[in-house]
Design a protein that fits this description.
The complex is a heterodimer of chains A (144) and B (345).
Chain A lengths: L1 H21 L3 E5 L4 H9 L1 H7 L5 E5 L3 H8 L6 E4 L2 H13 L6 E3 L21 H9 L8
Helix pairs in contact in A: 1-5, 2-6
Chain B lengths: L1 H9 L2 H23 L4 E5 L3 H17 L5 E5 L4 H7 L5 E3 L2 H14 L1 H4 L1 E3 L22 H9 L18 H9 L7 E5 L10 H13 L3 E4 L16 H11 E6 L2 H6 L5 E7 L14 H4 L14 E6 L14 H17 L5
Parallel strand pairs in B: 1-2, 1-4, 2-3, 5-6, 5-7, 7-8, 8-9
Helix pairs in contact in B: 1-2, 2-5, 9-13
The chains are: A alpha/beta (144), B alpha/beta (345).
Chain lengths: 144, 345
């Protein structure tokens, strides 16, 4: 319990430093730099950018994988900020404590806490793409 | 302790949230100290309809996961009354602050560490990536509970609520108030998740019903300007009362879930579906919240009529009110549709 509380406090400081340095409108965090979240998080990123053209976006990830995958996908116009794995944990603990959803997008339905969306996987055709499309990037146009 | 809480409240929201997370863990510890360390805790929130459905369906989850000992913590106004409907002995009513504290602990520590199940995960306080998929076309509201909340892939059964039969004294009281058996319409014009209809429009509907020979009573918290008298209807008596009255007319609200089993004529009004509504918070259209669509009422049951109208909308739908001429047209249409559902006596 106290470890998580301390992490949240460290995350608050880290978030303040990142915000001051990067001055972006939206920070997209990739806590699970693997599998379906990475794949669809990057694949749907151009669509998110095109629906929110006025936002200055920074990708925050623990490791280089996200940056490399973005380069492979030909996304070169979005800046990346690399943090340590521990710092990512701290940022997520901070997000669990304080609502940053206007500024942050966390590309995961499991972190900082389980939203339950993965329980819908496979039900009536729901895929990871749907989770990222509807719940994470909140893209509209199909939600009617 | 009160002093500490108010001191923290005065500080930043961040500090208060830290305190809440700590407090949430403490509350859960207290529950387990009292009821046993393996006690599974369910956090039940939401308005009337949500609370009713959570209580009706929770048994499926308990059975499937072989949960031996459990407690349900709720903070909604009617949770105790609804708990009594299902004779739920494991319900603990708590204040909103404590419940939010438990939610905060869940957000920081997760479900497994806390042995906790959240039954209302789309609440505002759980702000991270709130589920919108559940509101896409392929799902209806009952699916939300079956697949999303309770993760029941192989169907589910609803607990049957136990309503209190009307006593002789009660029947005499109803008769004394002029509520004739089988000739009364109980009107429920209030709902939390959709906008309301004008009182003037309700009065035109009431007038039409009276002309057809019905006695009308309003199930409202405050009778402000309705031409019919109001009558307090406790949840425990709602179905027997409706079966006595014979007719129900209301906006789609949680009360409709509760009275869905009543053997009487039911007319329920929904917001019309719009092309680009904001479904991130609510959906109350027939396609999502219809009582037949949710399987609360059999598809073949012809005692229920579901009507939709653009005169009402989801509270999250920010579109403006209809132009005057269109509004008048829709009002006339709605009155006609509603009155057509009630035969001349």
């Amino acid at each position: 319990m106290y470890r998580e509380l301390m992490q949240a406090m460290a995350g608050k400081i880290c978030a303040a430093v990142i915000c001051r340095r990067c001055k972006a409108d939206k920070y997209i965090l990739f806590p699970d730099a693997r599998g379906a979240y990475l794949k669809w998080g990057i694949r749907l990123l151009p669509q998110y950018v095109s629906q929110n053209p006025s936002e200055r976006i920074i990708i925050v990830s623990a490791g280089d994988l996200v940056r490399r995958e973005m380069a492979k996908a030909g996304i070169g116009n979005i800046r990346c900020k690399k943090v340590s794995r521990y710092m990512m944990d701290c940022l997520l603990s901070f997000y669990a404590i304080q609502d940053m959803s206007k500024q942050w997008i966390v590309v995961s339905a499991r972190r900082p806490y389980d939203t339950g969306a993965e329980r819908l996987l496979g039900v009536k055709g729901v895929t990871f793409r749907d989770i990222i499309y509807y719940d994470i990037y909140k893209l509209d146009g199909e939600l009617t | 302790m009160t002093g500490l809480k108010s001191f923290i409240r005065e500080k930043t929201p961040f500090v208060e949230s830290l305190y809440k997370a700590w407090n949430g863990v403490k509350v859960l510890r207290q529950i387990r100290a009292r009821y046993g360390r393996d006690t599974h805790v369910f956090l039940m929130r939401g308005a009337t309809g949500d609370t009713y459905l959570q209580l009706a369906l929770i048994d499926n989850y308990i059975r499937e996961r072989h949960i031996g000992s459990y407690k349900i913590i709720g903070d909604s106004a009617g949770c105790q009354e609804l708990g009594n409907l299902f004779q739920e002995k494991n319900l603990i009513a708590m204040n909103g602050y404590k419940v939010e504290s438990i939610e905060k602990a869940y957000m920081l520590l997760g479900s497994r560490k806390l042995n906790l199940t959240i039954l209302f995960p789309w609440t505002y306080t759980l702000y991270c990536n709130r589920c919108r998929i559940r509101m896409t076309e392929r799902f209806h509201f009952m699916d939300t509970y079956q697949y999303y909340v309770l993760d029941l892939k192989d169907g589910m059964q609803m607990r049957v609520p136990q309503f209190r039969q009307l006593t002789q004294e009660r029947l005499e009281e109803l008769s004394h108030k002029g509520l004739a058996k089988g000739k009364t319409v109980i009107v429920a014009p209030e709902a939390n998740s959709i906008t309301q209809l004008d009182t003037a429009l309700w009065n035109r509907i009431i007038e039409g019903l009276e002309q057809k020979g019905y006695t009308v009573i309003m199930n409202v918290t405050q009778n402000e300007g309705y031409r019919a008298p109001d009558y307090f209807c406790a949840y425990a008596e709602s179905v027997p009362l409706l079966e006595y009255a014979g007719h129900f007319l209301g906006l789609r609200s949680g009360l409709c879930d509760i009275v869905s089993s009543a053997k009487c004529r039911k007319v329920v009004i929904y917001p019309a579906k719009t092309a680009r509504a904001d479904y991130s918070e609510h959906r109350t259209e027939i396609e999502f919240c219809g009582l037949k669509r949710m399987h609360l009422i059999e598809e073949s049951d012809d005692t229920l009529t579901e009507i939709d109208t653009p005169l009402i909308r989801n509270i999250t739908d920010k579109r403006e009110a209809l132009p005057r001429q269109e509004q008048e047209y829709e009002e006339t249409q709605l009155i006609r549709k509603v009155l057509d559902c009630f035969q001349e006596l």
